[in-house]
# Entry
Amino acid sequence: MAHVRTYNPRVRVGNWKEDVTLEEETLKNFILQKDRGQLTVQKEGDLRQNILKPVSLSVSQDGFLHFGDTVMLVNSGGGEHEQRGSCVLSIIADSSCITSQSDSNSWLICFIICDGEVLRYDQSFALRTTAGFAGELFLASDHKTFLKCAKKSRLQELSLVDEFDFLCWWKVIYFDPQERLENEGYPVQVNSKVLISHCKTNQCLAALGNHILW
# Structure
């Protein structure tokens, strides 16, 4: 009995059955997620493909902005106290945002009153993302609190919501304060500098130079 070998390299020790079963289940889950397109690399590829997809903006025939037009909000930058390039209003999207489908840097003026009606200064309207992958979400905001505010600037934050309410109401204000009263009620011209103010909080959309990503 002293010369009998009780162990050799082919002998399985420990929880070998559990390890084999776990490897098989892991492989099955991987194949299942791959077939469903739920892998992280597949989600990021889908997100990248949709983000880089071009969006057709509306072309104005009379030089004015209309309800239903697809527009892009751009901050031209520059100014007396700060020199920086222009930037576009957009959101930060990653693979976790794909299910909500909320990434787009183009906004659709909705709340259509009638076809062809122009948007006027101090008139309430709503901004929502384009249809399709963007999800048709409304741009909303509210008063800042200790628990709810922008992470870097500590100002009131913007959010995209699927339900339209008073928090989604905005209005266009004439840029020059000296001529603001005279232009109240006049049509908004395209490609012009304006202020977009939130109806509830009376705060304007802003792109702060020390809080932009690129």
